[in-house]
Design goal:
nine-stranded mixed β-sheet, 2 domains, 407 residues, Aminopeptidase, five-stranded antiparallel β-sheet, 24% strand, alpha+beta, 11 helices, Alpha-Beta Plaits
Length: 407
C-alpha cells in the first residue's frame, strides 16, 4: 500500500495528465485551473483557511494561537513544464500541507501562523517570465512587469490573467518571517553519493545569452576555404572555447550551449549565420560576472580573428542567493534528530526560494532524484525519500512555528 504522500501526488497529477505519461499543467490553462480548485477544496477540507491572491497563488494557513501575524510558510509551485513529472513543484505543496495537518492533529494550534503556498507559476513554460507567482506575492513584480509578454499562441499574459479575474498586482506579504521549500534535487548528486537529504546553502546566479554569428552563405563546392566567411566554423570555435573556459574554471561554475541553429541549414551551402545560446551559472556573483565577461570577450576575439560579425544579447540575469543560516541549522538539527544522513550543497537550478530569500529568511531541502532526471515523465523519487523529506520538513516547521525559534 502506498503512503499518503504518494497517493496525494498521484491524485494531483491527474489534473494535467498527458498522453506521454507526464503532466502538462501550464499556468492559467484549464488543467492548471482544475488543479488549483481541487487543491483549494482539499486544503479547506483539511481545516485550513484558504485564499487565492491576485496572481492565482493559493495560500492556506492555520492561525497562530499566540502570534497570528507572524507566519511560518512552506510550499512550492503548482505549474509544470510540458510533460513534466509528478514531483517537481507539487511535492513541496503536498508534503507541506500533509506536514502541517499532522502537526495540528498532534499538537493543536501552533504559536505562530503556519502556512503552505502553491505558487501559480515558476517554470516560464507558457509565458517567458519565470517565478511570476512568488515575484508577485513578495513584491518583486506587478502586472506592469509582464506587459507585452505572450505565449506561443500569441495570447498576452496580462490579458489572460485579467480574464481569469486576477489583478496581477498586490501588496507584498510582509508577515512571513520564515520560508522553507521542500523539493526534489533534479540532479544526481544525492543519489550518486547515497545521501538521503540535501540542505541547500545557496542557489546559483545565472547569465543567459543569445549569440548570433553572421558570415556569408555560399556554394559548398565552388568557394575555396580561404575565401569563406563560414558562420558554422566561427561559432564552433566559440563554443569549444566557451566550454573549455568552464572546464578550466572548475566547480561550481557550469556553462551550457543548449541551442544551436544554422541558416540556411542546407548540406551543400556554407552556413551564412549561426545562432546559439549560452547559459552560465555560479554561486558567487563576482565569479559569475568575471566568467561571463571572459566568455563574452573570447566570443568577440574569435569573431574579430575570423572577420565575422557577432551580436551578443543577455536576455536573462539573476544573482546568486544565500539561504538563511539559522533555518539551515534547524534543518540540520531535524536531520540529526531523525538520524537521516544529509549533505550541505548548492542548487544549480532556480527555485521560488531564490525570489523569496531576497526579503524573507529562507531555506531549501532536497530529496534525491533517480538518475538526476527531471522535467520528464521519467522523473522519479523513492517513496522512502519522499517520506523522509516530509518528516524533516515537519520537524523543522514544528521548531519554527510551535517552539517559536526566531530567525
Amino acid at each position: 500500500m502506498s503512503s499518503l504522500i504518494l497517493e496525494k501526488l498521484q491524485w494531483l497529477a491527474g489534473y494535467g495528465w498527458d498522453e506521454q505519461g507526464g503532466i502538462t499543467r501550464l499556468v492559467y490553462s484549464d488543467a492548471w485551473q482544475q488543479a488549483q480548485q481541487a487543491l483549494k477544496t482539499w486544503l479547506e477540507e483539511e481545516g485550513f483557511s484558504v485564499e487565492v491572491d491576485a496572481a492565482g497563488n493559493v495560500i492556506a494557513w492555520i492561525p497562530g494561537a499566540e502570534s497570528p501575524d507572524e507566519w511560518i510558510m512552506t510550499g512550492s509551485h503548482l505549474d509544470t513544464v510540458v510533460s513534466g513529472g509528478i514531483y517537481d513543484g507539487q511535492y513541496g505543496i503536498v508534503a507541506g500541507a500533509l506536514a502541517i495537518a499532522k502537526l495540528v492533529k498532534e499538537y493543536g494550534a501552533p504559536k505562530k501562523t503556519i502556512a503552505v503556498v502553491a505558487f501559480a507559476e515558476e517554470e516560464a513554460s507558457r509565458f517567458p517570465f519565470a517565478m511570476w507567482g512568488s515575484k508577485s506575492m513578495f513584491g518583486k513584480a506587478t502586472i506592469d512587469d509582464i506587459k507585452g509578454i505572450k505565449d506561443t499562441a500569441g495570447l498576452l499574459m496580462e490579458q489572460v490573467i485579467k480574464e481569469l479575474g486576477y489583478s496581477g498586482t498586490q501588496e507584498p506579504r510582509k508577515q512571513v518571517e520564515a520560508f522553507v521549500e521542500l523539493h526534489i534535487e533534479q540532479g544526481n548528486v544525492l543519489e550518486t553519493e547515497e545521501i538521503d537529504v540535501g540542505i541547500v546553502h545557496s542557489i546559483v546566479g545565472q547569465r543567459r545569452l543569445r549569440i548570433t554569428v553572421t558570415g556569408e552563405a555560399n556554394h559548398a563546392g565552388t568557394t575555396p576555404m580561404a575565401y569563406r566567411k563560414d558562420a558554422m566554423k566561427t561559432a564552433s570555435l566559440m563554443v569549444n572555447r566557451l566550454l573549455s573556459i568552464a572546464d578550466e574554471w572548475g566547480d561550481p561554475l557550469v556553462a551550457t550551449v543548449g541551442q544551436f541553429e544554422l541558416e540556411p541549414n542546407i548540406s551543400n551551402v556554407v552556413p551564412g549565420s549561426a545562432h546559439f545560446t549560452l547559459d552560465v551559472r555560479h554561486i558567487d556573483e563576482q565569479s559569475l560576472e568575471e566568467a561571463a565577461n571572459k566568455m563574452i570577450a573570447e566570443i568577440e576575439l574569435i569573431a574579430k580573428d575570423q572577420s565575422i560579425e557577432v551580436a551578443i544579447e543577455t536576455w536573462f540575469s539573476s544573482q546568486p542567493v544565500q539561504m538563511n543560516e539559522r533555518i539551515i541549522q534547524q534543518l540540520i538539527q531535524s536531520c540529526k534528530k531523525q538520524k537521516i544522513p544529509y549533505k550541505s550543497m548548492h542548487s544549480g537550478a532556480a527555485h521560488d526560494s531564490q525570489v523569496v530569500a531576497t526579503t524573507v529568511p529562507t531555506a531549501m531541502l532536497f530529496v534525491p532524484s533517480k538518475s538526476g532526471i527531471s522535467h520528464s515523465p521519467l522523473e522519479f523519487t523513492e517513496e522512502k525519500s519522499l517520506i523522509q523529506g516530509m518528516e524533516v520538513l515537519e520537524d523543522t516547521l514544528f521548531r519554527l512555528a510551535y517552539e517559536g525559534d526566531k530567525n
